[in-house]
């Protein structure tokens, strides 16, 4: 295979870095909302409800953002496949930054009544619209710049950035959560949202400097007028496969939102230590994700992805049990193993695994629609499990539900083709062959 042109030399690293930084900034915005929903919004926006109902409503506003994701996936997938990956990445960052800043400016229920939670839901919908195109755009960008034998490794930087964003979001809330209750509920919770003004400026500067991918540039004169129509005519089975596999994101939403709310609001554990569990688990994930993604370049996407799903299905039981018993050593150990290691087997692989299912002409649409419908389902997982049980001893039903979702995702992955050794230009083609990518293949990074 020919070596890369001088124009693309070194671009895999640049694209991966841009995807990492952009995703970190984007998901900082997204996850501070989840933390606030678990700790604050039940008291600020739903004070008229009972404590259990207020918590359920607050978690539901987190899930509402996922409703907009499928809509955003259709719109932004179309834009990305028609006009380019770069335009999507810049737009999503600006929209996420603006809406997050405005959440921090919202008046409370005590100030304007029911209009406050209505405005909160509107802004959350816009956040979901933005997130719909973020990961699919960043994954397509980094994957299409990557050497064919290292697509897993380079695309994993998008998810490493997501973990970094979660670390930053949780770390910002650590001192905020330590404030006296009155200060936390009046002005303290707003500070992380206002910080998005800095986030959006930095992210915009970075993403404006990204080059469009060679794959898109080469096919610019032959783009489909309606990529979504082509997608559903030729690769609808792959879309359904990704939808089912992407529900594994329920592990993330249950870990970051439900478990936090369960530990603090139901079991009565201290906010600070539970927030630190998320920080340390994400630090572990920063190391595990590129390692496991690199492993998938050698042994295949399916073994690593499926192993991650099965490990999550097992570990969710002792993790929730340890929270119910208030055992901090076990909570930290099992939290890191579950989210930092086992879930990284999924997170490190899915960007390349899903992206390799689709041809370049419909890749962004296919990834965006498939993942965002699956993520929309996962977004309501905290609300579903909160409805399953709101008591201290109801953790077993939550664990069973989570494990069932993990098995569904593993089953969907089992039906997929193995694509780690398929040349980039053949990805998504009906005649996909398992042609090995030679070790001397392009190493443009």
From TrEMBL:
<keyword id="KW-0769">Symport</keyword>
<feature type="transmembrane region" description="Helical">
    <location>
        <begin position="273"/>
        <end position="292"/>
    </location>
</feature>
<dbReference type="InterPro" id="IPR020846">
    <property type="entry name" value="MFS_dom"/>
</dbReference>
<keyword id="KW-0813">Transport</keyword>
<feature type="transmembrane region" description="Helical">
    <location>
        <begin position="115"/>
        <end position="132"/>
    </location>
</feature>
<keyword id="KW-1133">Transmembrane helix</keyword>
<feature type="transmembrane region" description="Helical">
    <location>
        <begin position="304"/>
        <end position="321"/>
    </location>
</feature>
<keyword id="KW-0812">Transmembrane</keyword>
<dbReference type="InterPro" id="IPR036259">
    <property type="entry name" value="MFS_trans_sf"/>
</dbReference>
<keyword id="KW-1003">Cell membrane</keyword>
<dbReference type="GO" id="GO:0015293">
    <property type="term" value="F:symporter activity"/>
</dbReference>
<dbReference type="Pfam" id="PF07690">
    <property type="entry name" value="MFS_1"/>
</dbReference>
<feature type="transmembrane region" description="Helical">
    <location>
        <begin position="239"/>
        <end position="261"/>
    </location>
</feature>
<dbReference type="InterPro" id="IPR005828">
    <property type="entry name" value="MFS_sugar_transport-like"/>
</dbReference>
<feature type="transmembrane region" description="Helical">
    <location>
        <begin position="88"/>
        <end position="109"/>
    </location>
</feature>
<feature type="transmembrane region" description="Helical">
    <location>
        <begin position="189"/>
        <end position="206"/>
    </location>
</feature>
<comment type="function">
    <text>May be a proton symporter involved in the uptake of osmolytes such as proline and glycine betaine.</text>
</comment>
<dbReference type="Pfam" id="PF00083">
    <property type="entry name" value="Sugar_tr"/>
</dbReference>
<dbReference type="InterPro" id="IPR011701">
    <property type="entry name" value="MFS"/>
</dbReference>
<protein>
    <recommendedName>
        <fullName>Putative proline/betaine transporter</fullName>
    </recommendedName>
</protein>
<feature type="transmembrane region" description="Helical">
    <location>
        <begin position="367"/>
        <end position="389"/>
    </location>
</feature>
<feature type="transmembrane region" description="Helical">
    <location>
        <begin position="395"/>
        <end position="416"/>
    </location>
</feature>
<feature type="transmembrane region" description="Helical">
    <location>
        <begin position="53"/>
        <end position="76"/>
    </location>
</feature>
<keyword id="KW-0472">Membrane</keyword>
<feature type="domain" description="Major facilitator superfamily (MFS) profile">
    <location>
        <begin position="15"/>
        <end position="421"/>
    </location>
</feature>
<feature type="transmembrane region" description="Helical">
    <location>
        <begin position="327"/>
        <end position="346"/>
    </location>
</feature>
<dbReference type="GO" id="GO:0005886">
    <property type="term" value="C:plasma membrane"/>
</dbReference>
<dbReference type="InterPro" id="IPR005829">
    <property type="entry name" value="Sugar_transporter_CS"/>
</dbReference>
<feature type="transmembrane region" description="Helical">
    <location>
        <begin position="153"/>
        <end position="177"/>
    </location>
</feature>
<comment type="similarity">
    <text>Belongs to the major facilitator superfamily. Metabolite:H+ Symporter (MHS) family (TC 2.A.1.6) family.</text>
</comment>
């Amino acid at each position: 295979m020919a070596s890369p042109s001088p124009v693309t030399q070194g671009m895999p690293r640049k694209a991966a870095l841009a995807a990492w930084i952009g995703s970190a900034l984007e998901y900082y915005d997204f996850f501070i909302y989840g933390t606030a929903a678990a700790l604050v919004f039940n008291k600020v926006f739903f004070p008229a409800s009972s404590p259990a109902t207020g918590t359920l409503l607050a978690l539901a506003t987190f899930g509402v953002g996922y409703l907009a994701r499928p809509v955003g996936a259709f719109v932004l997938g179309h834009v990305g496949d028609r006009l380019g990956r770069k335009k999507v990445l810049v737009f999503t960052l600006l929209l996420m930054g603006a809406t997050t800043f405005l959440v921090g400016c919202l008046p409370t229920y005590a100030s304007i009544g029911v209009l406050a939670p209505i405005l909160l839901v509107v802004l959350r919908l816009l956040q979901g619209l933005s997130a719909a195109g973020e990961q699919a755009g960043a994954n397509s960008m980094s994957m299409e710049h990557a050497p064919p034998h290292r697509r897993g490794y380079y695309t994993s930087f998008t998810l490493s950035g997501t973990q970094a964003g979660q670390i930053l979001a949780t770390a910002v809330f650590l001192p905020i959560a330590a404030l006296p209750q009155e200060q936390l509920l009046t002005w303290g919770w707003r500070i992380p949202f206002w910080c998005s003004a800095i986030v959006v400026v930095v992210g915009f500067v970075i993403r404006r400097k990204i080059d469009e991918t060679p794959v898109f540039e080469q096919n610019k004169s032959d783009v489909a007028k309606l990529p979504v129509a082509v997608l559903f005519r030729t690769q609808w089975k792959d879309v359904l496969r990704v939808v089912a596999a992407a529900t594994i994101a329920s592990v993330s939403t249950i870990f970051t939102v439900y478990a936090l709310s369960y530990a603090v609001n139901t079991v009565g554990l201290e906010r600070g230590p539970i927030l630190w569990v998320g920080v340390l688990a994400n630090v572990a994930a920063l190391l595990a994700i590129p390692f496991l993604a690199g492993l998938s370049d050698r042994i295949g996407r399916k073994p690593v992805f499926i192993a991650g799903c099965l490990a999550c299905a097992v570990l969710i039981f002792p993790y929730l049990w340890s929270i119910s018993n208030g055992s901090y050593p076990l909570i930290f150990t099992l939290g890191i193993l579950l989210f930092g290691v086992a879930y990284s087997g999924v997170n490190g692989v899915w960007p390349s695994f899903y992206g390799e299912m689709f041809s370049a002409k419909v890749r962004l649409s296919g990834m965006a629609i498939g993942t965002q419908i699956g993520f929309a389902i996962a977004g309501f997982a905290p609300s579903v499990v909160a409805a399953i049980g709101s008591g201290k001893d109801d953790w077993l039903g939550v664990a069973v539900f989570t494990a069932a979702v993990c098995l569904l995702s593993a089953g969907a992955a089992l039906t997929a083709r193995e694509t780690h050794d398929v040349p980039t230009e053949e990805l998504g083609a009906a005649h996909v062959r398992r042609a090995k990518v030679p070790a001397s293949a392009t190493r443009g990074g």
